[in-house]
Design goal:
single chain; mainly beta; about 0% helix
Length: about 120
């Protein structure tokens, strides 16, 4: 069973950047598709980006508008989310998640393991 811990969240001004990391332990990281999701107060959890086991396939949600980039380093058991040109609407708790589904999927129900989340706050 894999354990996930996010880091890198914080407070940033509009137009700024943040780089989130998610460290995995307790499992074979390369067996999992990985995803980043977020949830703002009063809103449903939504997917931000997902990446396949070997990094060869990436799905990006439209909400990112090309501003977010997911990547992974299997040798470091880590998945990253680079976020640029941040807007107040990006304020949310960001979660990483791991899936053993047969294919890379964007729906949260496909992800069995979740980290506790990291808060991202973008001030206007």
């Amino acid at each position: 069973q894999v354990k996930l811990v996010e880091s890198g969240g914080g407070l940033v001004q509009t137009g700024g950047s943040l780089s989130l990391s998610c460290a995995a332990s307790g499992g074979t990281f390369s067996r999992y598709h990985m995803g980043w999701f977020r949830q703002a107060p009063g809103r449903e959890r939504e997917y931000v980006a997902v990446i396949s086991r070997n990094g060869g396939r990436i799905l990006n949600a439209e909400l990112g508008g090309g501003r977010f980039a997911i990547s992974r380093e299997n040798s470091k058991n880590t998945v990253y989310l680079q976020m640029n040109s941040l807007e107040p609407e990006d304020t949310a708790v960001y979660y990483c998640a791991a899936s053993m589904a047969s294919t890379t999927r964007a729906d949260a129900t496909s992800y069995e393991y979740w980290g506790p989340g990291t808060q991202v706050t973008v001030s206007s």
